Amino acid sequence: MASGKPTCARTPEATAGRLLCRWKLWLVPGVLSALVTLVLSLLYMGGILAPADSLHRLPIALVNADTGVPLAGSRENLGTRISDAITSSTPIGDVQWHQVSRTQAEEQLASGKVFGALLIPADFTSSVGDLTTGRATVRPTLTVLTNPGKGSLGSSLAGQITQKAARQASSEIGRRLTSSPALAGASATTRLLLADPVAVQTQVGHPIRRHTGLGLSAFYYTLLLVLAGFLSANIVHNGVDTSLGYADSEIGPWHSRRPTVPIDRTQTLLLKMGITAGLTLVTTGLIMLATIVILGMDAPHRALLWAFSYCASLSVGLGVQAINAAFGGIGQLVAMFVFIALALPSSGATVPLEAVPGFYRFLGGFEPMRQVADGVRAILYFDARADAGLTRGWVMIAVGFVVALVFGLGMTRYYDRKGLRRLVPQPD
Asked: Could you tell me which of 375, 244, 234, 243 has the C-alpha nearest to residue 316?
């Protein structure tokens, strides 16, 4: 017999075990996670595994300062012959030899236009000739100049190429000397010396300061600027949506949702961009405080570095806000690929673009991290020279500003005109 009291039917709660069997719950996260992992693996490892095999016009200076008279039986002095042999024997397209004077080479090293240099001294021919007459007082020397400001790997690649070229030149000179009839009665010691007569010494062509991470501080500082702009923009994006009632707030076990504020997409984007511009002042200052003041990173031209850092990080932040506004829920994933996944391997900050496959060189033409890295490197290592990459950095930052504003505001105004509002029903 019924008691007359109303009964409430309790909806059974779902369990993880049951839901795990639903393949639709696996589909979207599974496909996206697999694709992101595969693409990231290909992007990051594909750009660094074989830099020597991917060389494309790596710029190196070649200085022939030899003023000696050609040796008997030769029309040219040894400096000219070595220069011609080096340029002709290098595989076409691998190295771009800049045949310049010593002064021009120093200028190109100081502006970051070359990764290194090979110097043939003024007395090279005469010092080699002295070896065959017994008047030699010093061993003929070719000098390899490095440029650590272009990054440790890039400078190392240039050093390996120039050292190899110098040793090949020494071997070729040795073959000619030992085959000379005048040395038929020379001692074994003399013939051994003449078989490899040229010493190769390495010097720093353009020194950088001590606290620069062997030329890597520019890359990591750039990475901080891009990450700060990317992360703070996403934090602002989520925080504003939560405060305006367009997203739930969940902290630990506490869940809440604020009343929805009626505001269109364009005004929302302007609000997020305004907050991003303000917070970037803080993040840029903290990056400089941590890296320069606390950790002691060498950083000349600090006022210029701060201005460039702020504008670069802000450009990234505005770009992230524009992408989030245009793409909605997947905007953060799209922004991650634009500013992080595609930007890192094409930045040229660790592996030079001249030593990566062509796809990365193409990306480096417009990906923001490459432009920021060039500007930061110019400020930190090359005395803030405009022709060392600083001008290009400023120009591309300005382009980034314009693209972010035009794309973001263009998309939100389009959505607003179409009546695609973000208002959603409030929970009871």
From this structure: 234
- Torsion sign, CA atoms 235, 241, 243, 246: negative
On whether the CB atoms of residues 261 and 289 are closer than 8 A, the answer is no
DSSP state, residue 12: P
Q: Give tens-digit pLDDT for 260-287.
A: 899 999 999 999 999 999 999 999 999 9
**pTM to 2 decimal places:** 0.89
Report how far residue 298's alpha carbon sits from residue 312's, in angstroms, rounded to the nearest whole number: 20
Q: Where are the domains positioned within the chain?
A: 51-204, 213-417
Question: In degrees, to the nearest 5, what angle opens at C-alpha 157 toward C-alphas 81 and 300?
Answer: 110
For residue 100, what are the β-bridge partners?
63
- Structure tokens, 33: 């996670």
Which residue, chain included where needed, has tokens 């693996």? Answer: 41
Choosing among 2.40.100.20, 3.40.50.720, 3.40.1710.10, 1.10.10.10, the CATH entry for 51-204 is 3.40.1710.10
pLDDT along the chain (428 residues), means of 10: 53 81 89 91 88 92 92 85 89 91 95 95 88 73 94 91 91 80 61 80 92 93 96 95 89 86 94 96 97 96 97 97 94 94 91 92 93 96 95 96 97 94 61
Cβ(112)–Cβ(381) below 8 Å:
yes
Radius of gyration of the chain (CA): 31
DSSP 8-class letter at 163 = H
